[in-house]
Design goal:
The chain has about 425 residues and is mainly beta. It has 2 domains: about 190 residues, Immunoglobulin-like; about 220 residues, Immunoglobulin-like. The chain is about 10% helix and about 35% strand. The chain is built from 7 helices and 24 strands. The strands form 4 sheets. Strands 13, 17, 18, 19, 22, 23 and 24 form a 7-stranded mixed sheet that branches. The two termini are about 40 Å apart.
């Protein structure tokens, strides 16, 4: 039995017998004291599994980093989440750590005091780092799809005695995403058989003409099919609504290709940066969407859309949904696009679908002047919105929030 397995098993005992975490333990045994000693560090550890965060709560506590034992979990299985809290100042009151595990259909909570109830926040000393290990155990019927772990602090006494939800306020978001309830989205994983997507994109040496036909030697030589598409909660979409997407690259451009099955093609828009994802007066529309983060940090990412009519929407966000899309869409790339509809747009006659070909110059992407090196990782996700059948098809399931890149696919560029 390896060390990570032993840790997870010991944490699961806490999850199975949660009484020890309902209130902090007042009298510690020698074994308890040793456990606290082992969990109080002088500095934040580093390593490939440690993810920096830097979120500050009320100028008193910083979530400096975290680690997650795995990013794919089956219902009934468990995952170990480790939080590294840095104490900045004394915390007055009986503040408890909350963990909300949110899926598209359910929430499971793991509220606790640090170190298995042995080291409450009132005992933390400024300057020390508290290693807080949490066993996240899923029920056998936990919903399949994306699951997101939100954390923060609430006043346990105020809640118990007065039903007041008093929380430590997020002062600095750092590298992470927060919400209006002073919750921090610290980690995400997929539940079920769908793994987080990884793709190595090949280079093409042949010339490419952006004509929407995808039959050139360049595509035959270089295109990598990204694989199957799913509903937003991780179920395969019907074959009749099949979506195929591919990528390749050369020294000048990043290339995208789409082939979409669709029996009723509709889009009312003709102007660039229109709201292609909505249907206007018709109430529905067809569009392909592509999200791309050139350094996979959740900051400075692109949203790019193409309709069956070849109309595009492109926007650059500096952080999660910031600035507002009307401001973000003032960013326009020097991009080549061609869409070919196999059918007739906006009429009741049956259609077969549409194809799209895109060439995005590397120099148009944030922080880039040319093609990336082989070690550079990008975050990417593909979406198809449809006016009929399955509303949304996705490459890497992230729930209904397409801007949530925590579970987007990882892309690297090889030869």
């Amino acid at each position: 039995m390896n060390r990570s397995t032993r840790i997870l098993l010991s944490l699961l005992l806490i999850a199975v017998f949660p009484a020890a975490c309902r209130s902090p333990k007042k009298v510690l045994t020698e074994l308890d004291k040793q456990q606290v000693k082992d969990s109080v560090l002088s500095e934040v550890p580093t390593g490939p599994e440690i993810v920096p965060v830097g979120t500050v709560f009320d100028d008193k506590v910083e979530l400096a980093a975290y680690s997650l034992s795995k990013t794919q979990v089956k219902p009934g299985d468990g995952v170990a989440l480790t939080l590294y809290w840095k104490s900045l100042a004394k915390v007055d009151g009986d503040f408890k750590i909350f963990v909300h595990l949110d899926s598209t259909k359910a929430r499971k909570t793991f509220d606790h005091y640090a170190v298995g109830g042995l080291y409450p926040t009132a005992n933390w000393n400024p300057g020390e780092v508290v290693k807080d290990e949490i066993a996240i155990q899923l029920d056998a019927n936990f919903p399949v799809g994306p699951a997101k772990a939100w954390v923060g602090f609430f006043d346990a006494r105020a809640w118990k005695e007065e039903k007041k939800n008093v929380r430590l306020a997020v002062k600095t978001a750092g590298r992470a995403r927060t919400d209006k309830q002073d919750r921090l989205l610290v980690a995400a994983f997929l539940v079920g058989d769908v793994e987080q997507k990884k793709l190595v994109v090949r280079k093409t040496a042949a010339a490419v003409s952006v004509d929407g036909k995808l039959d050139e030697a360049g595509w035959k030589q270089g295109m990598v099919d990204v694989g199957p598409f799913y509903t937003t909660d991780g179920k395969l979409i019907p074959e009749a609504e099949k979506v195929e997407a591919g990528m390749m690259w050369d020294d000048t451009n990043l290339y995208l290709a789409y082939q979409v099955a669709d029996s009723d093609l509709r889009t009312p828009y003709t102007a660039r940066d229109s709201t292609l994802w909505s249907g206007g007066k018709s109430g529905s529309s067809d569009v392909m969407e592509f999200f791309f983060d050139p350094d996979a940090d959740g900051l400075d990412y692109l949203e790019f859309q193409v309709s069956p009519a070849g109309v595009i929407f492109d926007a650059r966000f500096t952080s999660y949904r910031e600035p507002a899309w009307k401001v973000a869409s003032q960013f326009n790339m020097d991009v080549q696009v061609k869409a070919l509809a196999d059918g007739s747009l906006n009429d009741p006659s049956p259609d077969k679908g549409y194809a799209v070909e895109v060439a995005i110059p590397w120099k148009s992407l944030p922080g880039m002047t040319g093609p990336p090196g082989p070690d550079r990782k990008f975050s990417a996700n593909f979406f198809r919105l449809s006016n009929n059948g399955t509303w949304a098809a996705v490459w890497s399931p992230v729930g209904n929030d397409f801007h949530d890149l925590a579970l987007a696919g990882t892309v690297t560029f090889g030869q």
